[in-house]
Amino acid sequence: MEKRPPWHYLLLLILAGESVFILPFVLSRVFRPTVLEVFDLDNVQLGLCFSVYGIIALLSYLFGGPLADKYAPRKLIALALWMTALGGLVYATFPSFTVLKILYGYWGFTTIFLFWAPMIKAARVWGGTTSQGKAFGFLDGGRGLVGALFGTMGVLIFSFFITSNITEVIVTDRRSAFKYVILVSSGIVILVGLMVWFFMKIDHKVEKEIVLDKITIAQIKEVLRLPSVGLLMIIILCAYVGYKITDVFSLYAQDVMLYDQVQSAQVGTFLLFVRPIIGALIGILADRTQTTYWLFISFVVSFLGALLFATGIISNTSTALFFISILVVATGVYAARSLYFAVMERGQIPLVLTGTAVGLISLIGFTPDIFAGPAIGYLLDNSPGTVGHQHVFWMLAFFSFIGGIAALYYFRLYRKWKKPYKMEGE
User: Fold this and answer.
1) Which domains does the chain have, with CATH numbers?
2) For residue 384, is it left (φ>0), alpha (ψ between -120 and 50) or beta?
3) In angstroms, rounded to a whole number, what is the distance separating the alpha carbons of residues 367 and 57?
4) Long-range contacts of range 372-375, CB-CB < 8 Å, 24 or more positions apart?
């Protein structure tokens, strides 16, 4: 494809790419202790909400993928943002546990069926044949920056409405403050949807080239036969477990480092600021060498970082080691996350069937949305305190090891560059 979309196309994609996940995930990542308290949940119950999301998402990946190959990404992305923001209005009422599970199921539909595959396809379109590392590195890193800004904004709003000492504030006041965080976030998501609808446009000829009138069973079978598709299922599954485990850093700060709720939220926000730096650096580096090689290295770094936490050498007196260890884990996890879709081009997956391929890969790759939340919650609640957190990081070490093996095989299989794969009938 000769004509690449302009830079503002990627910037809008980045903005939309994280905004859609602010309500279901980013707020609970930054404010996990607060969310548990104001919704009257334990770690297992919050994990079950994520599981409901994951179950709906699983079906949405499968059917939403081909949808992304039939319609322009811009329209599906804008619709997803608006529908997700409407769920925020329900979230702001602090519903019961049952309604909360239904809401997370609804978000599983809006953020995945309508959004996920169109976002990945739009990034591949922007990256062309030479800049896939930059496209996905900037996308994930940029999403991290957007998440960090949302997190910072949320902490500021929350702190503004907490007028007395945080340790003396009653639950009602914390709930009232967190409600403003939810409503402001929802309003911004609606605004981003409008920007995408009106400004994330590409050349009409290019748009026609990336859209298919009909997806056949034969095409789906042919995509499944590609070795890269099966390997990416394993790679993404392992990398995504690592990403889900980063959700516990703010809770680790409270349980092990003995920080208060505002300080622990600031730790979660600090982690979000690391993500854009890693994404941008790894994207540029990968395009200059090989994306598949750096994907393997990212799992090695994640494994080593997991061992730092799992072995229990970090205590509430070792603040510097705590933040260094966070940086090591974050480097590995965010680098893998930035690159696992960037290797699709080298893995011979046709651009026109990106949505279908992403749907099939994600069906397995994102199953941690179902099992990771309850598994993490069980490990934390079954062994409260430091020991529970150690168990969670042993889990990270295990999946990083498996992901590293799959990434190494992918690197060796596609070490030599080949012409883009042609589907039958092309």
Assistant:
1) 7-413 (1.20.1250.20)
2) beta
3) 9
4) 372/47, 372/50, 372/240, 372/241, 372/244, 372/245, 373/46, 373/47, 373/48, 373/49, 373/50, 373/51, 373/54, 373/244, 374/44, 374/47, 374/48, 374/50, 374/51, 375/47
Rounded to 5°, angle at Cα 234 from 232 and 240: 95
Residue 170 phi, psi dihedral angles, 5° rounding:
-80, 165
How far apart are alpha carbons 331 and 278 in whole angstroms? 6
For residue 197, which amino acid is it? W
- Cα separation, 385 vs 383, whole angstroms: 7
- For the CA atoms of 413, 414, 416, 421, what is the dihedral angle to 10 degrees? 120
The one-letter code for the residue type at 261 is Q
Mind listing the pLDDT tens digit for each residue in 205-264? Answer: 666 665 555 666 777 777 778 888 899 999 999 999 999 998 888 888 888 887 877 778
CA atoms within 13 A on the CB side of 63: 10
Closest CA to 57 of 379, 413, 397, 368: 368
What lies within 8 Å, CB to CB, of 106 at 6+ separation is 56, 87
Q: Any residues with CB less than 8 A from the CB of 163 and at least 6 apart, and which?
A: none
pLDDT at 204: 64
Enumerate residue ranges in the chain where pLDDT < 50: 1-2, 420-421, 423-426
96-120 CB burial, b ≥16 within 10 A, e <16: eeeebbebbbbbbbbbbbbbbbbbb
Cα separation, 78 vs 119, whole angstroms: 11
Six token digits for residue 18: 């994280």
Return phi, psi of residue 340, to 5°.
-65, -25
Measured distance CA(259)–CA(48) in Å, rounded: 26
